[in-house]
Amino acid sequence: MRSRLYPVFKYTVIALWACFVAGPFFWAMTTSFKNANAVQGGPTYIPWAQYEPTLTGWRNIFGGAGGVDVIDPFINSAIVTIAASAISLALGSLAAYALSRYRFKLGFIKNSDIVFFFVSQRIMPPVVLVIPFFYLLQWGGLLDTIPGLVIVTVALLLPIAVWVMVDFFNGIPREIDEMAMLDGCPPFQTFVRAILPNSLPGLTVAAMFCAVFGWNDFFFAFRLTFTEVQTLPQAVVALNSSIPPWWTLSAAALFGVAPLILLALWVERLLSKGNLSGAVR
């Protein structure tokens, strides 16, 4: 009896959790195709049967009347996320390789303490960091600029890259390094030619985490930019007025989350094929 009830219980829990996760997306999708009358007329979810679908909300996010143009904020977010993720992966991989293969010691501080120091940067509340970042960018003339946002985002993503890659490099046998050095490769060439090709799964997972955190950042973009630069999360929040246009807000939210969904599907496809075997520990 228990063997028969367990699959029923398991799939029931999975179905309920799937509905819980997909519910907000379904609500946003249906709302994005409504107009004001359909939204104010009560909960309706079946197009053509309960309401007449319209593209008003989607037109508004591309510069239509009563909306906001999300193209420039989308491009700004893409530039900041891609640049910061690439820099974080490059620097984080080098730091993680050194922490994985060499032993550092300064008094009681060891490699594990250095790794924890990197991770601890993500523990601090953002409000603690925003004031130093503000004065640093103001001193460098980088307030309200894309390079300034990239620098701040790198500082936020670098701990993630180090944390993921240290764990992955620790799982790569040291014999690979030794064989490369016996062939005459100095340490940096060993890292580039022997270790990185075997680290693509870890790099992919680290890049996914960096992209998600970088793309979703709102607080620092909101506090460190004013009029010249606006990211996509800022543009979406700008629609949330005293009487928010829910159809436009829903379309903008779906447009903003679409790149992350595509990224997650791509990484999940690699995981299902085994191409990222061992990358998630």
Which spans of ≥5 residues are poorly predicted at pLDDT below 50? none
Alpha-beta classification? mainly alpha
Radius of gyration: 23 Å
CATH superfamily assignment of the domain at 70-240? MetI-like
CATH-level-2 architecture of the domain at 70-240 = Orthogonal Bundle
Pfam families: BPD_transp_1 (PF00528)
Keywords: Cell membrane, Membrane, Transmembrane, Transmembrane helix, Transport
Domain ABC transmembrane type-1: 74-267
GO biological process, one term: transmembrane transport
What does this structure look like?
- The chain is mostly helical and 281 residues long.
- It has a domain at 70-240: MetI-like fold, CATH 1.10.3720.
- It contains 13 helices and no strands.
- The chain has helices at residues 2-32, 36-40, 56-60, 71-101, 111-120, 126-139, 146-170, 174-182, 187-195, 200-216, 219-224, 232-238, 246-273.
- Helix 4 (71-101) packs parallel to helix 7 (146-170).
- The protein starts with a helix and ends in an 8-residue tail after the last helix.
- The mean pLDDT is 85.
In short:
The protein is mainly α. It has a domain of 171 residues: Orthogonal Bundle (MetI-like fold), CATH 1.10.3720. It contains 13 helices and no strands.
List the helices and strands and how they pair.
Blueprint (H helix, E strand, L loop, with lengths): L1 H31 L3 H5 L15 H5 L10 H31 L9 H10 L5 H14 L6 H25 L3 H9 L4 H9 L4 H17 L2 H6 L7 H7 L7 H28 L8
Feature tags:
281 residues, mainly alpha, MetI-like fold, 13 helices, globular, MetI-like_sf, MetI-like, membrane, transport, Carbohydrate ABC transporter permease
